[in-house]
Amino acid sequence: MRVFVTRRIPESGLEILRENFEVDVFEGDSPISREELIKRAKGCEGILPLLTDSIDADIMDKTGIKAIANFAVGIDNVDISAATKRTIPVTNTPGVLTDATADLTFALILAISRRIVESDKYLREGKWKGWDPLLLLGGDFVGKTLGIIGFGRIGKAVAQRAQGFNMNIIYTSRSRYLEEENEGIKFVSFDELLKTSDYVTIHAPYTEETHHLISEKELDMMKPTAYLINTSRGKLIDEIQLIKTLKEKKIAGAALDVFYNEPEINPELIELDNVVIIPHLGSASLETRTKMAIIAAENLVDALKGKRPKNIVNPEIYD
Ligand code: DGY
Fold first, then answer.
1. CA 122 to chain centre
2. Would 2-96+286-318 and 98-277 be classified into the same CATH topology?
3. What CATH number labels 2-96+286-318?
């Protein structure tokens, strides 16, 4: 059996695949084009795509693939219902990237609030004239309210970190989590979260329902001193409205790991000094990316060998 990997992934994952299949890996240094993907995946039984590869019905039909093992926890790049209709198993990599993503979320909260990037630039530009009681003042965390939108694995891991900073933690989600509520984390409505948080951090999957979850109305509800943090998916936020809000200084700032049209970044965003922007690095630790490669590879092996993979996203195909 042949499988196609759409970009180099950590070797430990490729080794598992090579022990089981003939493996073709795209070696380019930017995401593979749609045409090249179809050409290379055609005739392969399985594909291991990245979140940058849109795997839709057309690709499934043109390549004839029989299993899709996504190298990400987010699966918005795969048309799950098209895969399910064709009884193609789709898997993802949940769990292993929870801590790395929560750590990065906190790094962004710290960076935007304590003006780390701005201060680094200031120093490198030779502007520092000596210690100054009023230089580059940021905000404290203790007693501030962190509002978490989406309280799955990553949202909860962010809350754990915030407890260490003695923050007041609130969350909004479709489900209630009583264990965490017993620890003092408070459930609030979506609107209340926006109105009362000093930091709003998004940890929701991107779907049709969550498209532009944060738009003009929601941004208007936020406090003028609040920060917005996004390490989930760019299209959860109406980026044009966010830029307008930031320009008008209606909120204090934003720290973004994900963007509307990756890898393109809206040039207006780059111009703003009340934002921290980094290139989709949520899971980017060596340990985590290695685990993701192993899990994705194991999922593909199981799926193609007729075993129900551990991280199946469309289990109904096995019913
Ligand atoms: C994912 O796995 O969905 C992340 O966005 C990758 O960092």
1. 29
2. yes
3. 3.40.50.720
